[in-house]
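Q: Entry one of two.
A:
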Amino acid sequence: GAKKITSKGVADLVTATDKANEDLIFKGLREAFPDHSFIGEESSAESGAVAALTDTPTWIVDPIDGTTNFVSGIPLTCVSIGLCVGGKPVLGVVYNPCSDELYVGLKGHGSYLNGVRLQVGDTDTLADAVVIQEYGYEREDGILALMSTSAALLGNKVRALRQFGSGALDICFVAAGRCDAVYAGVAHSGLCSAWWPWDYCAGIVIGEEAGCVFKNFAGEDFDLFYRKNFICAAPGIMEELRAVLNSAAS
């Protein structure tokens, strides 16, 4: 049917389906887990703030990740549901209804695509790597310029550079060995240019359980609420990729 579309910003669409999906997911989760907390993309947008993550078990939901793809009829869109316990992601579920692909990760128990165990690729050089570049939500001139610079620097160093428009699926593609890395944001301490917690939460568990490494551009272990920049990569190319991305700001 027709998709009623509004906008949360220059690069962030929202549809009636986003809101309906989030309401449906939260209703089911609240009935099953009445003592848990909940953070959702649409409810956060409506309240104007993202709730703080506490030690209480917390579900973090993106009802449609890749809304622009969804609106445009591009079959790269998904529902992303993550669970944090003690402030750390422990469960991730990502479902792409277009391809009927269900990714599930449970801390300490592996990650799976339609029941088949996932394993990150063994690529150990950028020259052999397929890397996904994603813009964040911001479109400031400084961010766009640095994103263009990083793409230009990577362009002749990697096997291929791609943009798919769904952060959760990007991470799942790396976990499945279809691609070798995904990054978002730029190497500039004053610019918050990456994603929100609901974009990462489920994917982090799926990726880590498949052997992916998550870092920010500074090389620090990734924090779910860090919004400046982000890398998920096969272990063998993380440091080489990080060096190139940081050189874009030099």
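Q: Entry two of two.
A:
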Amino acid sequence: MNERLRTAMLRHGVALEDLAETCGVEPKTVERWINTGRVPHRRHRWAAAKLLTADEMYLWRDVLESSQARRGRANQSELVEVFPDRASVPRELWLRLLSDAQEKVDVLVFSGTFFAQTQPKIARLLTERAGRGVAIRLCFGDPSAQSVETRDREEGLGGTLAAKIRSSLTYYRTLPELDGCEVRLHATTLYASLFRYDDDILVNPHAYGEPASANPTFHFRRLDGGTMAEHYMSSFERVWSGAVPWSGAEI
């Protein structure tokens, strides 16, 4: 028996016939909803929930459980592959994701030196994508930021991280001049390097005291009903919104 539905009807003075008329069904159908716990079609649930000023997932708990199960399956399906460290990500995958991008390419790193080293023609590739209407957003660490100094110390880099950032930026000096290309500098504590290509995103989390290259990398692909890929895509947006535009000038 669906006690929640029965109680909601009693509290609002809604008779079987009233709910049946609102939902466009027979009163016997409403009886089955109450007495057998049968879950109505979606449009009927919405109509009933509106009449009873209640959440459909409260009135029909199975809907919530079903929704959670679907979300769980979607999240599992979003995980395409796990690499034990960033160096294990095939160069071909980086190139394919970039060349296949149709809408956007987002990169969030401190220095991202490897990004250019594994793709020597990175500026040309990004320029070509931008020319095809792909929005390019690159976000590097600000060499003068305290967060860069802290990460340098934590990873035992001996004061070289700021120099690595400046060196890495030289690859992208001409990009800010192009339509559809933006480069910014951030001062955040970077918990994960992010590389987004449309609905695909490579996530390289940072473990304390370890260089980014030694940490695992997760490949997610956004799916309807999933939350994993969107979780990291939203993180990029938050960092990007507080980052400072870089014009290409030497810093």
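A: Comment on entry two: The chain has a mean pLDDT of 91. Residues 80-245 form a domain with the Endonuclease; Chain A fold (CATH 3.30.870.10).
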